[in-house]
Amino acid sequence: MARLTQTQLNRLSKNFEERTPDEMLRWAKDIFGDRVAAISAMQKSGSVMCHMISRLELDIPVLFVDTGVMFQETLETRDRISRDYGLTVRTLHPELTMVEQTEKMGVLYMSVEGQEECCHMRKVEPLLKTKGDYDALIGSLRRADGGRRGVCPLLAVDIEMNTVRINPMANFTDEQMAAYLAEQDVIINPLHDQGYTTIGCNRCTTPVLPHEPKRAGRWRHLGTAAAYCGINPTDMSDGESEAIDLPQDLVDRILGQKTDFMI
Ligand code: SF4
User: Fold this and answer.
1) Does some domain include residue 50?
2) CA of 53 to the centre of ligand 1 (A)
3) Average pLDDT over residues 190-215
4) What would you report as the CA-atom Rg of the chain, rounded to the nearest whole angstrom?
5) Is the C-beta atom of 74 inside 6 A of ligand 1?
6) For residue range 119-134, what is the model confidence (pLDDT) as tens digits?
7) Which of 141, 252, 258, 262 lies 20 to 30 A from 118 at CA?
8) Contact 30, 129 (CB under 8 A)
9) What angle do CA 81, 155, 142 make, to 5 degrees?
């Protein structure tokens, strides 16, 4: 095994800043093969990412965390994307149903501390159960979404999952997103047309008003105390001094030291 540090990935990311999402996705498949998966919450940017994976015929599975309290529209979007795009969608579930959790621990999501615990049990832990299955996870984070995502890296280490996190759409602007949606027949969660700019669990997501920030509808009942669920580690930490362990030949391929792979 060999160490792969965030500092090494930062250097690589700089070289990739001009790459398109298509190029980044092809790179991910070429480098990680069957050991890469995408993760989507079936929001707009995740749908665009799924469309790209399908259009490029990359045969990359998609992970979807069903917290048990998702909007019906989100579940239907997942099913349509799986069927119409021919993608393998692997749905992950928490250990407890929301009823079991509430009986045991009360209504967690109504307090700041409880929200962290609830998101960890219902979102982070189901993903952690896949640890070891993949060396890389592709997400659909975009800098244009602002907040902590305003600086999200193209490549990051995920210590808890021991994977590389790849954000091929980090540089995808709102204008590029609008153009892609206009040109391609992308399946979009219908809640986006009902004022929901971002979409999570039905307990903790509301529509937003036109003058509000995009993420104002997430955990609105908790004020400004909560903004992210923790399933994307770069939302929670700058990761500067972090590292993961991967096979030596894979680390060499990622860093371009034993391959003539060129985009
Ligand atoms: S978004 Fe709300 S209901 Fe969903 S896991 Fe987090 S705290 Fe729980």
Assistant:
1) yes
2) 28
3) 94
4) 18
5) no
6) 999 999 999 999 999 9
7) 141
8) no
9) 55
pLDDT-derived band at 150, boundaries 50, 70, 90: confident
Q: Write out pLDDT tens, residues 32-58.
A: 999 999 999 999 999 999 999 999 999
257 found inside a domain: no
In this structure, the residue with its CA closest to atom 6 of ligand 1 is: 119
CATH of the domain at 139: 3.40.50.620
Q: Which residues contact 222 (CB under 8 A, 6 or more apart)?
A: 111, 112, 115
CA of 215 to the centre of ligand 1 (A): 15
Q: Does the residue 155 lie in any domain?
A: yes
255 domain-assigned: no
Q: How many domains does the chain have?
A: 1
CB count within 10 Å of CB 183 equals: 8
**Per-residue confidence (pLDDT) for residue 228, from 0 to 100:** 80
Q: Using most ligand atoms within 8 A of CB, pick from 101, 204, 215 the residue to mutate for ligand 1.
A: 204
Which atom of ligand 1 sits closest to the CA of residue 229? 6
* Residues with catalytic roles: 229
* Lookup: tokens for 228: 């992210």
- Two structure tokens written together for 79: 């099913």
Domain that holds residue 183: 2-249
Residue 221 φ then ψ, to 5°: -70, -10
Tokens of 202: 């039905």
**38 Cα to the center of ligand 1, angstroms:** 21
* 109 touches ligand 1 (CB under 6 Å): yes
